[in-house]
Amino acid sequence: MGRLGCSRTTRCTARHAEGFRSARRSLLPICAAVILAVAGAPSAEAQPTDYPSRLIQVYVPFAGGSASDVITRILLNRMATSLGQTFVVDNRPRAGGNIGTAAAAHAAPDGYTLLMSTSGPLAANKSLFRDLGYDPLKDLAPIGLFAVLPNVVVINSKLPPKSLRELIGYAKTHPKELNYGTVGVGSSQHLAGAYFEQLTGTELTHVSYRNITNYTPDFLSGQVPLGFQLLPNVIGLIRSGDARALAVASSKRMTALPGIPTAAEAGLPDYESSAWLALLAPANTNKAVIDKLYAAVVDAMNDPKVRTLFVEQGAEPLVLGPEELRNFMASESAKWAAIIRKIGIEPM
């Protein structure tokens, strides 16, 4: 009797177990679908209505204290007020700005990793490097251009030239003896120097620095006495009298240097070269996030204090929206590609 009872119980248990296994198998696809749906759902922090809910990292592909770094921090400080969130700058200099720009281009498109980059990594470098590791127009989402910095021709005050014409004459009688410093191949300073050589028929020697602060002592010592620099990099030298500004490579005089002639006024027509600064995000960043960031850029650039600080740093305030910036990047790439081919710089 006990054996029969045990047999029935075993058969019932087996049937219940098989039923449980069958039910579990039928539930597996449903559970998997629920898990995938939850995993694929955007997190609360990614929702544009909640953006930004935490600090925002901004890659700057140049050294701290450089012109682009200083001006970017002025912008971001004001944007932080509009957005109610902190910006953290991550300086990643090297390779003419390509390393930091590539890092940002391949970051998650969640609005919490942005990029401030310039005319080199976003335009000219396409013709200077065989492989950037990113495509400026495909891998980045433009937010807005916010500043233009004309290059300023400066020379150590101990050298004889006191005008641009005198500098050209001096360079022709001292071929390859005048060293000019830049923050790297493809930077606006480098292209300004190379373009100057092309237009004047002079031969200069390019000296590249990883950090612009290393350029200053060499300029003062006379080892690298020439520059086609952005004003923030040399404004202290000009004010102290150690550097002599000879001309501005723009169509009009700079607000911060009203007494310095344009290159055309100084006798070198068509010599125009400038850096421009823009804020971007990784491609596929939500458009609502882009629009919110651009609105913060506009708010900042409408602030008289920001515009004054820009001018003090040698930057001319200028705002272009996302689509305008995309078109501008494409036109700048074409412009510098033609100049680089004419100069004869081989891609690295």
Residue ranges: pLDDT <50 for 5 or more in a row?
1-46
Instruction: Summarize the amount of helix as a percent range.
Output: 40-55%
From the helix content, strand content and strand pairing, which structural class follows? alpha/beta
- Report the total helices: 11
Subunit organisation of the chains: single chain
- On the 0-100 scale, what is the average pLDDT? 87
**Radius of gyration (Å):** 29 Å
- Architecture of the largest domain in CATH? 3-Layer(aba) Sandwich
The shape is globular
Distance between the termini: 92 Å
Overall CATH class of the largest domain? Alpha Beta
The biggest sheet, with number of strands, parallel, antiparallel or mixed sense and barrel status, is:
8 strands, mixed
CATH superfamily of the largest domain: Bordetella uptake gene, domain 1
Classify the fold: give the CATH topology of the largest domain: D-Maltodextrin-Binding Protein, domain 2
H/E element order: HEHEHEHEHEHEHEHEEHHEH
Integer tally of domains: 2
| Beta-strand proportion | 15-25%
Number of beta strands: 10
List the helices and strands and how they pair.
Elements: H1 2-40, E1 56-60, H2 67-83, E2 87-91, H3 98-105, E3 113-118, H4 119-128, E4 140-156, H5 164-173, E5 179-182, H6 188-200, E6 205-208, H7 215-221, E7 226-230, H8 231-240, E8 243-248, E9 274-282, H9 287-301, H10 304-312, E10 316-320, H11 322-343
Parallel strand pairs: 1-2, 1-3, 5-6
Antiparallel strand pairs: 3-9, 4-7, 4-8, 4-9, 4-10
